[in-house]
């Protein structure tokens, strides 16, 4: 006979969360089927094999455990009733293959992974892409063995001609499908996956992106511009501060605290890769800091995140997105007043730093400023701006 029990596995993911699994035991041998949910160890009740009330989604996850347990138990009973001997490995394979042959079932598992990593914005994006694919095939289920190169090309043509999407956006749709197929192979060991991607098959191609930053002359215009409204100057201060600190991302700008400035240096942790950064405070930043409002209760340089619970990831990301949109709207007005034709957004501060630093700073130093893990990442990013050598080479040929 077989037994089934919900357990919390001991190996945590990169977010220090632990996976919930259903443990199947047969002939004293165990195997595990993961349900796609990760929680903190403190939120697990070992005695009752359930999630504690301390977890905000305990009702949902416990109901999910019961549903999954019921599904698996039915398949275990079917396996036990077969006349041929069924090993625990064979039972697991049968359960998984029957349960996860459908592309959209594996998609749900993938979306739950994103939720557990608190990548809520990405969840919304991926849901929309999967719905577009479902509408394209006109089916609520799709067998993992039915993917082929022809289907991918037809879907690409649909996205291009019917939805008028850019090549870059189409590539992102294909990456979503490829990711889910990889999960079906790696996490569920499904053997009948038809894999249409790779050499000699459908290849995902990324068009070269054009990154345009401001010049020194244009930034000087912004530094000295007059007659801005208070809201426009506030947005411009955020942009200039981002530029002066090597183009730090807008999310990091909004999270900067007054206590991060110590001994004439800025000390902060990057939100994207959690790396610690320590930078000298340029003299130009001191002027900006003097313009920002501060009192005994003020925590952040910019007021958008005052009073926000940083543990509420979904709300935090929504506030950052809203603040960025407001900044960008005001920056467009600033660019119009300054007579700058280029698009002026918070992210352009990073491109502008890259544009100006391209021929002034070694690639190794830029890697340190950007806090890239690999110098290859820095080279690829900076290749958009390092034009002097190319221009000199061209002049040598045509200037005769």
Automatic annotation (TrEMBL):
It comes from the Bacteria. InterPro entries: Arm-DNA-bind_5, CB, DNA_brk_join_enz, Integrase-like_cat_sf, Integrase_catalytic, Integrase_recombinase_N, SAM-like_dom, Tyrosine_recombinase_XerCD. PROSITE patterns: CB, TYR_RECOMBINASE. Residues 101-185 form the Core-binding (CB) domain. Gene3D superfamilies: 1.10.150.130, Intergrase catalytic core (1.10.443.10). The keyword Ribosomal protein does not apply. The keyword DNA-binding applies. Residues 209-395 form the Tyr recombinase domain. Keywords: DNA integration, DNA recombination, DNA-binding. Belongs to the 'phage' integrase family. This is Recombinase. It comes from Polaribacter sejongensis.
């Amino acid at each position: 006979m077989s037994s089934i029990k919900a357990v919390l596995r001991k190996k945590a993911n990169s977010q220090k969360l632990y996976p919930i699994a259903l443990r199947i035991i047969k002939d004293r041998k165990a195997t595990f089927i993961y349900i796609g949910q990760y929680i903190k160890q403190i939120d697990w009740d070992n005695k009752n094999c359930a999630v504690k009330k301390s977890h905000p989604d305990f009702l949902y996850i416990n109901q999910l455990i019961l549903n999954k347990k019921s599904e698996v138990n039915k398949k275990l009973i079917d396996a036990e009733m077969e006349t041929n001997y069924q090993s625990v490995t064979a039972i697991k394979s049968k359960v998984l293959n029957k349960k996860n042959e459908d592309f959209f079932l594996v998609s749900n598992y993938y979306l739950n992974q994103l939720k557990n990593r608190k990548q809520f914005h990405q969840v919304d994006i991926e849901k929309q892409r999967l719905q577009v694919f479902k509408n394209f095939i006109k089916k609520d289920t799709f067998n993992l063995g039915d993917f082929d190169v022809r289907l991918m090309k037809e879907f690409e043509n649909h996205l291009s001609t019917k939805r008028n999407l850019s090549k870059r956006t189409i590539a992102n749709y294909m990456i979503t499908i490829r990711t889910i197929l990889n999960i079906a192979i790696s996490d569920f060991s499904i053997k009948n996956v038809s894999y249409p991607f790779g050499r000699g098959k459908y290849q995902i191609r990324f068009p070269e992106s054009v990154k345009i930053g401001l010049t020194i002359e244009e930034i000087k215009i912004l530094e000295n511009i007059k007659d801005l409204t208070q809201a426009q100057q506030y947005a411009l201060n955020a942009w200039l501060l981002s530029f002066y600190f090597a183009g730090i991302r807008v999310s990091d700008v909004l999270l900067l605290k007054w206590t991060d400035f110590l001994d004439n240096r800025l000390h902060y942790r990057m939100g994207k890769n959690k790396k610690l950064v320590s930078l000298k405070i340029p003299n130009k930043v001191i002027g900006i800091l003097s313009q920002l409002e501060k009192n005994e209760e003020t925590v952040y340089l910019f007021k958008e995140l005052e009073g926000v619970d940083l543990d509420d990831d979904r709300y935090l990301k929504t506030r950052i997105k809203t603040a960025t949109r407001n900044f960008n709207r005001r920056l467009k007005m600033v660019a119009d007043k300054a007579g700058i034709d280029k698009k002026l957004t918070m992210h352009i501060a990073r491109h502008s730093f890259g544009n100006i630093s391209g021929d002034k700073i070694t690639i190794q130093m830029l890697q340190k400023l950007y806090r890239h893990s690999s110098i290859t990442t820095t080279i690829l990013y900076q290749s958009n701006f390092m034009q002097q050598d190319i221009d000199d080479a061209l002049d040598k040929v045509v200037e005769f």
